[in-house]
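User: Predict the structure for this protein chain, please.
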Amino acid sequence: MKATVLDYQTHNIEYSIHRVMTIPSLQQAAVKTGEGPSARCEVQTIDVHMPGPGQILCKINYSGLCGADKSLLYDEWVPMGLMPKRDYHGILGHEGVGTVAAVADDVKGLWKEGDRIGVKWVSSICRTCEFCTNGLDELQCPEQLNSGFSTPGRAF
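Assistant: Here is the predicted structure, written as C-alpha cells:
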C-alpha cells in the first residue's frame, strides 16, 4: 500500500510535492520487559498493523516519554488499581508526532494520508456519549482509549 502527499500551501505559496511512503510490514518499538523497579524498555522488531475501523496509521518522526510513562513502566500505579491493559503490548508513549500513512475507510472524512499528526494520551473516544458531544469533556468519555495504557503507545 502506498500513501501519497500532494499539494499543500504555506504562506499562500503553493507547493506540489509527490512523495511516496511505503508502509513496511515490520517496525522497531521500545517494548516493556519485566515488572516493577527492574522493568526495562528493549528495542524489538514488531509487526505493523494496518488501521481497523475508526483508526489511522501514523509514521512517527519524533516521540517522547513523560512521567506517566515512567510510572507505567515501573508499575507505580498498580497499588492504586491502575494497570495497563493487555492490548497495549508493552509499548509506552503518548508524545509522538508524525505523518498519517493510512486511513480506515470510516474516518477518511476526518483524516487523509500525509496529514501531520500529534499523538496524545487520549487516542480514541466514542464520539457519541454526553461527554463527547458537549464539546467540553471528552476526557471523561467512559469508552476512551489511552496511548501506552489501553492501546499500544508511540515510543518507536
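Residues 1-19 have pLDDT under 50 and may be disordered.
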